[in-house]
Amino acid sequence: MAKKLEIYKCEVCGNLVEVTDAGAGTLTCCNQKMTLLEEKTADSSTEKHVPVGSEGKYGIKVTVGSTLHPMTEEHYIQWIEVINGDYVNRKELKPGDAPEAEFYVPFKENLIIRSYCNLHGLWKN
């Protein structure tokens, strides 16, 4: 059973799905069960993948990595997401963009911040 806000990936075509309403069914794509992505928080590449929130000009500023993540065609952050209770805010990124985003959400310590790397998957603060 899928849970709200979980991220699933199709290993055949690469589709990503975020669950907005949990249900009893199994998520499938391309005639295969989709893979639940684990939210990674640390490993040897933490300095480039974990999203970090700080006070920004208009709300929360998120940068991906204490050493900024590369943003090349081959390796980049696809999106950054801030979850604040019932509100979900996402910024889509593309190669060449800076691996950062600012959201009109007041900065506070208990926000959930996630980012998705096209090579290394889902990361959480």
UniProtKB/TrEMBL annotation:
Keywords: Electron transport, Iron, Metal-binding, Transport. The keyword Aminoacyl-tRNA synthetase does not apply. Its EC number is 1.15.1.2. It comes from the Bacteria. Fe cation 2 binds at residues 49, 69, 75. Binds 1 Fe(2+) ion per subunit. The iron ion 2 is coordinated via four histidines and one cysteine residue. It catalyses: reduced [rubredoxin] + superoxide + 2 H(+) = oxidized [rubredoxin] + H2O2. Residues 3-37 form the Desulfoferrodoxin N-terminal domain. Its cofactor is Cu(2+); Fe(2+); Fe(3+). GO terms for molecular function: iron ion binding; superoxide reductase activity. Belongs to the desulfoferrodoxin family. This is Desulfoferrodoxin. It comes from Thiospirochaeta perfilievii. The lineage of its organism: Bacteria, Pseudomonadati, Spirochaetota, Spirochaetia, Spirochaetales.
